[in-house]
Design brief:
The chain has helices at residues 3-7, 9-25, 27-41, 45-56, 60-69, 73-86, 90-97, 102-110, 116-138, 149-156, 165-192, 194-197. With 199 residues, it is mostly helical. The protein is elongated, with a radius of gyration of 20 Å.
């Protein structure tokens, strides 16, 4: 059940690419990429994943693609806002005077400084990925060759009265996993907040 959330991280790279490009270039590029982002965000992540799994078939690769395609808009919008703020700084003009291209400035100089809020957002995305993958497996749309908490809950329903723990334990595992990731996000928020670090 952890495979899809782990592998989902590289899908978020699409969000970093889109957000950095839109925030730095602005203009019609920003408008086009943000309209695309908004179009994807209008579809709930679970509905999008469900539709893609029905089309692609239940397998680990299709689950990763389905969950990942719903994950990139949020990082894109966060990175765009951070890059737009950084792009107005004087050091960006200095890099331009040194002859650096926009791609090098955006991805090598600005993006590393814009990653702090994305790290916090990544914990929220991971928690969402765990829930989506578990829900898909519960509905019988997970990878049949892999064990998942969702499929364990579904299989335990047949003996719920006589062996309730077969569903309760994987359900509790989902709760603990999501809660742990959420607490990690709060810890990262506190650690990366410059106002708290000054105290």
């Amino acid at each position: 059940c952890w495979s899809a959330p782990r592998r989902r991280c590289w899908r978020s790279a699409l969000g970093l690419l889109v957000g950095t490009t839109a925030g730095f270039l602005g203009g019609w590029v920003d408008e086009a990429l943000m309209r695309l982002t908004e179009a994807v965000q209008t579809v709930p992540s679970f509905i999008l994943a469900l539709a893609l799994i029905l089309v692609l078939g239940p397998s680990l690769g299709s689950i990763v693609v389905a969950i990942g395609l719903g994950a990139w808009p949020s990082p894109a919008r966060v990175v765009r806002a951070e890059v737009m703020a950084l792009a107005r700084r004087d050091f960006v003009d200095a890099y331009r005077c040194m002859g650096m291209g926009w791609a090098r400035i955006a991805f090598a100089k600005l993006l590393p400084n814009a990653l702090a809020p994305v790290l916090v957002l990544a914990t929220v995305i991971t928690a969402s990925a765990i829930l989506i993958e578990s829900a898909l497996s519960f509905l019988g749309l997970g990878d049949p060759n892999r064990v998942s908490w969702g499929s364990m809950i579904a299989e335990g329903r047949a003996v719920l009265r006589s062996a309730w723990w077969l569903s309760a334990i994987p359900g509790l595992a989902i709760v603990v996993a999501v809660l742990s990731v959420s607490l990690l996000g709060e810890a990262l928020t506190a650690a990366l907040d410059p106002r708290r670090r000054r105290r």
